[in-house]
């Protein structure tokens, strides 16, 4: 009894210091804003330690429960106050949408009938330089990865997502500086970067990088980002042409990947759940289906970047021709 009296006395004395009406939460029923009790974490910890010393045996458990409940109330209050809590989404079969990195409206069925054999024949000095550079970069890649195409795809996608982001960022800044529209090219290039990143998220479910491969990503990405940034500033047509040739090489790599899958050299495991939802694949899809749609994506990126380079070579700015937004 004395312990309860002591705790009540401590609460009356510390109450004004502990509790305030600063936190706000939304009423679930009416959607109105109403004040709730907010607790200072520092003051709460002091009070709980005092209460634990007063309460004796079993007080630690009660203090922990109170702190946990307080934390949950604070998190809920903050999310409700700012109104940015994501809505609950459901798939057609009634199950809840599980992905936070993309939404149902970001998914699509890839056009796998695209021509995979199209090739831009280099004619100008810039084209030949871009082609030679891409071919030279393939040599160390082949030596390092050999025919480990699962790991190769995962590692190369960490680089493939860079050009779209760099190009979109620089076009964004140019649009702000010149007070002009981009013709949709900012969105088109950022879509490309996001699509390449989703390739990475998918292959991470198939193959996990070793520690030295992670270190390699840091080094290669740092060099490639700055090199491509400088190249795009100096010559956007050369930068886009180089990406076009990179995508042609990616198509070749994924074709070899498919050959090994069909020959049984690589196990044709079930497709990751993220790939099934992102590309709207059937529930029984396999790794072969995933590689097929990824290869089709690369072919679309090839077309977009060669097209962008052709626009520059013809003396036009990208904004003068509508961008192929959502082309893939």
Describe this structure in words.
The structure is a single chain. With 328 residues, the chain is mainly alpha-helical. It is 64% helix and 3% strand. The protein contains eleven helices and four strands. It has helices spanning 2-18, 41-55, 59-82, 125-145, 149-160, 162-178, 185-203, 211-234, 236-262, 273-278, 287-313, and strands at 19-20, 24-26, 33-35, 38-39. Strands 1-4 form a two-stranded antiparallel ribbon. Strands 2-3 form a two-stranded antiparallel sheet. α1 (2-18) packs antiparallel against α2 (41-55) and α9 (236-262) packs antiparallel against α11. The longest helix is centred in the last third of the chain and has 27 residues, at 236-262. It is globular. The N and C termini lie far apart (72 Å). Residues 14-55 have low confidence and may be disordered.
Brief digest:
With 328 residues, the protein is mostly helical.
- Spans of 5+ residues with little confidence (pLDDT < 50)? 14-55
Radius of gyration: 28 Å
Number of beta-strand segments: 4
- SSE order in H/E notation? HEEEEHHHHHHHHHH
Distance between the termini: 72 Å
Helical run tally: 11
SSE layout and pairings?
Elements: H1 2-18, E1 19-20, E2 24-26, E3 33-35, E4 38-39, H2 41-55, H3 59-82, H4 125-145, H5 149-160, H6 162-178, H7 185-203, H8 211-234, H9 236-262, H10 273-278, H11 287-313
Antiparallel strand pairs: 1-4, 2-3
Helix pairs in contact: 1-2, 2-3, 4-9, 5-7, 5-9, 6-7, 6-8, 8-9, 9-11
